């Protein structure tokens, strides 16, 4: 081989090497930005429709909130804050929207609990009965009184903020087992604990290792939210990374008025906060409370390319 040919071969190898390095860097960056956004929907009739929420392309998960009354012998009740009246069958029309979301690849979950309401589990039997109700009325089972119609939701979100800490683990196991045994389709489970670790109510359920997603509420909790400073915030974040769950999300209010404390301006989130946590092994993305507030601030639009 002549010196000229050797130089050409060397240049070609260098070019190929640089291309390979570029590909690897792109892959690394893609991995670092592989998060998604979850949003709660249903607690303000002034927010976008469910179908429009999913059509925005901003969210991978939409959580319908809430079944606020259940357990302890109570007849379960869904409250969608003026969107529709479940008691009269007026929410069955949402089946069309739910299926539209699912066709777009958006997972739609049902949240049980919430900050207000009347709920709790009195025993293991009670937990099994609630699981059966949720399965037959919202998931893969059958019932003549399905509040959201015949659409099959993708899973259940545990936003447990009262009602005691017992038997939520039993409810989680029952729901997971029903998905496996009755139709072979997995029931996704998520939880929305407060950022003080461990959570007062959800801890026992999360320890089962059955939860696919945990969106931690880093708001209304000054000691561990972002405003507490990087050290306190990261200490809490790292503790939540230790739980046996699939992915951990940073839960935030979508506007100042969405929570008492904990709002993080979009610019600060993308430039100062997310760079601290995106490389975490279980990082899943950002959860927003809630769609109504996001509609008014455009928060998800501002952050989605950085999550």
Automatic annotation (TrEMBL):
It is an enzyme of class 3 (hydrolase). Pfam families: Glyco_hydro_18. Its EC number is 3.2.1.14. It comes from the Eukaryota. Transmembrane segments: none annotated. GO terms for cellular component: extracellular region. GO terms for biological process: chitin catabolic process; defense response to fungus; polysaccharide catabolic process. SUPFAM superfamilies: (Trans)glycosidases (SSF51445). The keyword Disulfide bond applies. Keywords: Carbohydrate metabolism, Chitin degradation, Disulfide bond, Glycosidase, Hydrolase, Polysaccharide degradation. PROSITE patterns: GH18_1, GH18_2. One of its GO terms (molecular function) is endochitinase activity. It catalyses: Random endo-hydrolysis of N-acetyl-beta-D-glucosaminide (1->4)-beta-linkages in chitin and chitodextrins. The keyword ATP-binding does not apply. Gene3D superfamilies: Glycosidases (3.20.20.80). Residues 35-307 form the GH18 domain. Belongs to the glycosyl hydrolase 18 family. This is chitinase.
